[in-house]
Amino acid sequence: EELVSALPALDEREVEASLRPKALGEFVGQPKVREQLQLVLESALRRNRPPDHVLLSGPPGLGKTSLAMIIAAELGTPIRVTSGPAIERAGDLAALLTSLTEGEVLFIDEIHRIARPAEELLYMAMEDFRVDVIVGKGPGATAIPLELAPFTLVGATTRAGLLTGPLRDRFGFTGHMDFYDEGELEQVLARSADLLDIALRPDGGAEIAGRSRGTPRIANRLLRRVRDYAEVRADGIVTADIAHAALAVYDVDQLGLDRLDRAVLDALVRRFGGGPVGVSTIAVAVGEEIATVEEVAEPFLVRAGLLARTPRGRVATPAAWAHLGLTPPTAGGG
Ligand code: ADP
């Protein structure tokens, strides 16, 4: 398991589920999205109609899945969960859509990765609550229109920009999720510590929050590793000192950068002299897909002031050089 990765490890899903906020009022941070969503839901409840389809965009681990579940809970409806890559054929999606009950929430994670034929089927389903099911092949094939029960689609994506125009246009509301600040992460941690029965002192929470990469999923994971350390090496109480010592054992750096973040910075600074260099070149250098570099690593590096996206390519900031313990070449020297 990679300690600070923003993507969930398989065995962590259960713990994560237990830590999920269950109501909008329990959801920490994202005040803008929360307020907007509250209006969308409240108004739908008053009109007694399913709300418009909702798109949630933002980096992994910020609470998109949690919000989707909260939407269903607030509406008092069941939720069906799937993901873009899991929907391989339009027929699979048609079967799923026709099985939805009235008002149900359908959550599609990574919706930008849905196969094109399925996506096209989704257009009509979202707009008219109807699908055409194709029966047979070749010239004899016929389209049988089927009515769907009105439902609410909640889509999640790490990059709204990758969605096709027609798909994006069919969402009545898009919530843009941003990284959490340290105060918000401290609240997330206090809540989780309560649920997990961990004796977390405020200074311990602050220490963990500062290294959580702006991401609740990572904060919760670090909390559990620090708890392990506190129980084995101390009296179980998580203070700033204990958290500091524990995070040193787990190689979590001062900014909470993960392996990929560090690899990207390292390539940018050491191999390409700090840039500017294209993202595809960086991706090859770190052995990752371009999309992973762009969607998982870069948003936080930009937010942390370590990397800048310029028209000529990616550039390491002086803070990035300093973070790696290096001195940037003097400006104007070339
Ligand atoms: P995403 O779908 O964006 O990858 P998740 O909804 O799966 O993120 O969130 C990951 C974990 O982080 C959840 O299990 C939950 O414990 C925690 N979490 C995320 N957002 C919040 C929040 N706003 N308040 C409290 N916990 C949160």
What are the main properties of this structure?
five-stranded parallel sheet, 11 strands, DNA recombination, 334 residues, globular, alpha/beta, two-stranded antiparallel sheet
Chain-averaged pLDDT: 93
The total count of helices amounts to 14
C-alpha geometry: globular
| Structure classification | alpha/beta
Subcellular location: Cytoplasm
Region (Small ATPAse domain (RuvB-S)): 181-251
Catalytic activity: ATP + H2O = ADP + phosphate + H(+)
Binding site for ATP: 19-20, 61, 64-66, 127-129, 170, 180, 217
How would you sum up this structure, described in words?
By secondary structure, this protein is an alpha/beta fold. It contains 14 helices and 11 strands. The chain has helices spanning 13-19, 31-47, 64-75, 90-98, 116-128, 165-169, 182-196, 202-209, 216-233, 240-249, 259-271, 279-286, 290-303, 318-323, and strands spanning 54-57, 79-83, 105-109, 130-135, 142-147, 152-157, 173-176, 199-200, 237-238, 307-310, 313-316. β10 and β11 (313-316) form a beta hairpin. α7 (182-196) packs across α8, α8 packs parallel to α10 (240-249) and α12 crosses α13. The relative contact order is 0.12. It binds adenosine-5'-diphosphate. Adenosine-5'-diphosphate is lined by residues 16, 19-21, 27-29, 60-66, 156, 188, 216-217, 220.
